[in-house]
Amino acid sequence: MYQINDYLKYGKDVCRVKEIEEKKFNDQDYYLLVPVKDETLKIEIPVTSDKVQDLISKDKLESLLDKIPEIETIELEEKFMESEYKRLMSTGEYEDIMRVIKTTYLRNKIRKQNNKKLAEKDINYFQQAEDNLFNEFSVVLGKSYDDTKNYIINKLDGILA
What's the whole-model pTM score? Predict the structure, then answer.
C-alpha cells in the first residue's frame, strides 16, 4: 500500500498520494491523488485499484537513458510512420515510447539542419511521448520537468554530434 506523499502512476498520469481515507459506506480505503501535471485536479480511487502502478525505478530509468544511443529509430516509408508511432505509444513500454521520442526528435532536427519545414506529425508525437514519460522521469530523477527534458534532449543531441 502506498503512503501519503508517495508517487505512483494512475493510468498514464503521475500522481502524488495526498490522503488515504476510509469511506464509511463501504468500509474501503481510498487514495486521494493529485496529478503532478495539474495539481488542481483531485482523483479518488480505491486502494485496491488495478490501474495503479509503481513508477519506474531509478536503476531502470538510468539503464534506459544509457541505452538511448542503441535504441533504433523507426525507418519506414513516410505513409507508415504515423501508424507505427500509434502502435508504439499504445504498448506503454518505456523503450517503445523512447523510440518515438528519439525518432521524432532526430527527424525534425535533421529537417531543421537542412532548412526544411518541421513535420507536424513528428512534433505531435514527440509531445505526446514527452508528456507520457517526462513527468514520471522528473519525479524519479528528482529534477524539474524542464531539467529532465533538457537532460534527455542532450543525450539525443549527442547521438548526432
Answer: 0.86
Do 24 and 45 sit in the same domain of this protein? yes
Residue keyed to cell 505513409: 79
Average pLDDT on 2-24 reads 92
Give 108-150 as a 3 state SS string. Answer: HHHHHHCCCCCCHHHHHHHHHHHHHHHHHHHHHHCCCHHHHHH
Residue 26 domain boundaries? 7-53
Q: What percent of the chain has pLDDT over 70?
A: 97
Non-local CB neighbours of 2 within 8 Å, separated by 6+ positions: 8, 17, 20, 31, 47, 52
Residue 161 above 60 pLDDT? no
One domain, residues 84 and 133: yes
Number of domains within the chain:
2
The residue type at 71 = I
